[in-house]
Design a protein that fits this description.
Blueprint lengths: L2 E4 L2 E4 L3 H13 L4 E6 L1 H8 L2 H9 L2 E4 L2 H9 L10 H12 L5 E6 L4 H12 L4 E6 L8 H13 L4 E5 L4 H9 L7 E4 L3 H6 L7 H5 L3 H8 L1 H23 L2
Parallel strand pairs: 3-4, 3-8, 5-6, 5-7, 7-8
Antiparallel strand pairs: 1-2
Helix pairs in contact: 1-5, 2-3, 2-12, 11-12
């Protein structure tokens, strides 16, 4: 799939429909690997972290989960790109996968959220096949405990593993462990777990289309997100204008 390099991270030139179709093909072929969903925040973290940048480059795809990335790509002439938000991708793949009994595994940091995610999606999309749900223990996880967690995913015969550990923890987890989950497609969707379960309200559609979802999230969680949107986002725009444009 064609991509464009944005400050060191290759971003796939695709949209929600294209990403959904491509991922269904990967799952059917048991290609495995991991998928990152990137926004300006993730790009900026990778720019100052060589290890995270390498993780992005090793990913099967980095999808544009953020309108600023879409705007940059379109500015460069890639008109076929569209936003692939984590919540939308979860819903699209769960819906499309019902026809082939796609087996979904939900792996998220907060206890109980994976189960609520599965239950919410099962109500909305009858026929969803839930392979399993799990949450890692809080803090550092020893090798033996992680080996048990990975063995459980393998035993569940998952096709798709949805990972919600926040950035960059989920990207590091997928990169480190995807080879222990052969044939499975891992997708890091972070906050999508909270949006799908309703724990955090998503911005109205008009704000998403107007590239204002960041404002909604900032007003909803100012203490956690102010640095991301008030410091990192302007820095991202400045770098694109001064050195990122091609």
């Amino acid at each position: 799939m064609t991509s464009t390099d944005i400050l060191g991270t290759p971003i796939a030139i695709t949209d929600l429909a294209g990403a959904t179709a491509h991922l269904l093909q990967r799952v059917a072929a048991r290609e495995g690997g991991y998928i990152c969903l990137r926004d300006a925040h993730g790009i900026m973290l990778a720019r100052r972290d060589p290890d995270l940048r390498a993780i992005h480059r090793d990913a099967a795809m980095n999808l544009p989960d953020g309108m600023p990335l879409v705007h940059v790509a379109r500015w460069r002439g890639h008109r076929a790109i569209g936003r692939v938000a984590g919540t939308d991708l979860v819903e699209a793949l769960v819906d499309a996968g019902r026809g082939t009994a796609l087996r979904h595994y939900f792996y998220v940091g907060k206890p109980g959220v994976a189960e609520r995610m599965a239950a919410t999606l099962a109500r909305r999309f009858p026929g969803l096949v839930v392979a399993g749900c799990a949450s890692p223990p809080f803090g550092e996880v020893d090798d033996a405990t992680m080996a048990e967690a990975l063995a459980a995913i393998v035993a569940a015969r998952a096709d798709m593993v949805w990972v919600g550990l926040s950035t960059p923890k989920q990207e590091r987890w997928m990169h480190r462990h995807h080879r222990a989950l052969p044939g499975m497609t891992l997708i890091g969707v972070g906050a999508a777990f909270d949006f799908v379960t309703g724990e955090v309200g998503r911005a109205p559609r008009w704000m998403q289309c107007a590239t204002l979802e960041w404002l909604h999230r900032l007003l909803s969680e100012p203490g956690r997100l102010w640095r991301r949107y008030l410091l990192l986002a302007p820095r991202f725009a400045w770098l694109i204008l001064t050195e990122g444009a091609k």
